[in-house]
């Protein structure tokens, strides 16, 4: 049922995209994946209710824990070997929970722009509730128009790549309003595990954060790096640094995952 693509050869990385995004969005922006073969086999998919993957209106299906189960099912369908898991924002949360569920099958973990968590989560929940009200009272088109006026991306990124905001808006506009309402309901009920749980995950982890984004605060990345016992943290604040992320991800996967 999931729209899935497999590209490249080498050690396997199973990757999950962010909330209200899709594989197409990530391909268009190039934040995480190279344009050419780089020695990593990438298994990517549209999350339930996103892109070209169908979804219903049961919010329980969109909880981060449920999405972690989806990620593990997709991973198992493509490789039985220890594999790298990774994702952006919502996808990072899914990958983290999947690694906690099956650490013995996770060679390494990539958490790109981790979502709001712990102390910063209530503010984000209020934002999701506002989005739900806009959809219910004025329709999805109104929400898309508002995101055009206030793109949820760092200013330094918007200045370098204004087309990335357009890609984000287009991904949002293709979603089904009742499904998105359910997805947001699930997001309101989610948070990352506490530090004592994270300390048990002895999987090499690459954490990629960027500055000046309230939806993906540096604080989340820093706290994850403190809690996870085998973590590398890289924080950026420029488009030129962002261009290096695909290579950093691939190098990390090749270093920690057997082909």
From TrEMBL:
Could you tell me which residue ranges the Serine aminopeptidase S33 domain spans?
A: 13-237
Q: Under the cellular component aspect of Gene Ontology, which terms does the record hold?
A: membrane
Domain of life the protein comes from: Bacteria
Cite the Gene3D superfamilies for this sequence.
alpha/beta hydrolase
Identify this protein by name: Pimeloyl-ACP methyl ester carboxylesterase
């Amino acid at each position: 049922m999931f729209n899935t693509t497999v590209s490249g050869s080498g050690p396997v990385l199973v990757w999950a995209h962010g909330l209200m995004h899709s594989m197409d969005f990530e391909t268009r922006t190039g934040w995480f994946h190279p344009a050419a073969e780089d020695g990593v086999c990438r298994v990517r998919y549209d999350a339930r209710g996103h892109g070209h993957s169908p979804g219903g209106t049961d919010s329980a299906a969109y909880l981060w824990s449920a999405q972690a189960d989806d990620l593990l099912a997709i991973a198992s369908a493509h490789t039985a070997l220890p594999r790298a898991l990774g994702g952006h924002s919502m996808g990072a949360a899914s990958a983290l929970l999947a690694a906690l569920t099956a650490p013995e099958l996770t060679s390494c973990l990539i958490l790109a722009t981790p979502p709001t968590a712990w102390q910063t989560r209530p503010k984000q929940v209020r934002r999701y509730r506002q989005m739900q009200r806009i959809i219910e009272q004025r329709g999805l088109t109104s929400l898309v128009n508002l995101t055009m006026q206030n793109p949820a991306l760092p200013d330094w990124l918007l200045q370098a790549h204004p087309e990335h905001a357009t890609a984000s808006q287009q991904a949002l506009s293709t979603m089904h309003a009742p499904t998105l309402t359910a997805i947001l309901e699930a997001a309101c009920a989610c948070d990352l595990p506490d530090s004592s749980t994270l300390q048990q995950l002895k999987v090499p982890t690459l954490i990629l954060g960027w500055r000046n984004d309230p939806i993906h605060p540096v604080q989340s990345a820093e706290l994850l790096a403190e809690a996870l016992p085998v973590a590398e943290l890289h924080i950026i604040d420029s488009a030129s640094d962002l261009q290096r992320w695909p290579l950093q991800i691939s190098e990390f996967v090749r270093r920690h995952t057997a082909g």
